[in-house]
Amino acid sequence: AQSVTQPDIHITVSEGASLELRCNYSYGATPYLFWYVQSPGQGLQLLLKYFSGDTLVQGIKGFEAEFKRSQSSFNLRKPSVHWSDAAEYFCAVGAQNNDMRFGAGTRLTVKP
Amino acid sequence: GAVVSQHPSRVICKSGTSVKIECRSLDFQATTMFWYRQFPKKSLMLMATSNEGSKATYEQGVEKDKFLINHASLTLSTLTVTSAHPEDSSFYICSATNAGYTEAFFGQGTRLTVV
Asked: What is the pLDDT of residues A40-68, one digit of tens each?
């Protein structure tokens, strides 16, 4: 079965600084990879997804992620963080039957 | 993107009672729905997968008789927490997909508090 590891439980960055959230996956075939954001008490919002093709994926809110098969990684990046980006971020890997497994999440705090 | 509506968003119930949570796909036919549970400051744990018209497949450690899942139509799945106890208090989230999609769409979640 597929699995996801998000090594960083909590990250703090200053507003305007760049951001990278790490995600490593384990899956035997070509994975479907996702990044979601969750604000407190809310559902999940899809930031971006990778199925195939260009390994650099652009998402909403200025986020991007790069799929690196050799490293089994799908790290999320943003060049300049805004205070409104403070939230919980989840990486997920899906199989063809759409059974999606989530990482433990990374909580992002943005300092003024 | 497709819309999945989950109701209620919050519910408080007394210990020993049952609570039903609905998950509806509003603009597509959901052949498969997933139910997740999220503990405070924790990730989403898959509870079960339900396919329309058939019995749900539960993940290991999830009590089938405790968490009843029904997926009777292509637009509705329900999760009933039976004889709820305080330890069942959690955030429950559903997602839905159909054969034509390569991603799942999530509901807004339901905050269940058992007192």
From this structure: 877 888 899 998 889 999 999 999 999 99
Whole-number Å distance between alpha carbons of B49 and B99: 14
DSSP of chain A, one letter per residue?
Answer: --EEE---SEEEEETTS-EEE--EEE-SSPPEEEEEEE-TT--EEEEEEE-SS-SEEE-GGG-EEEEEGGGTEEEEEESS--GGG-EEEEEEEE-TT--EEE---EEEEEE-
At B51-94, the pLDDT tens digits run 888 889 999 999 999 999 998 888 999 999 999 999 999 999 99
Q: How many CB atoms lie within 10 A of CB B21?
A: 24
Whether B57 contacts chain A with CB within 8 A: no
pLDDT band at B102 (very low <50, low <70, confident <90, very high): low
Q: How many CB pairs under 8 A join A and B?
A: 52
Bridge-based pairing of strands B57-58 and B76-81 is: unpaired
When CB atoms are compared, the residue of A34, A43, A107 closest to B93 is A43
C-beta atoms of B32 and A94 within 8 A: no
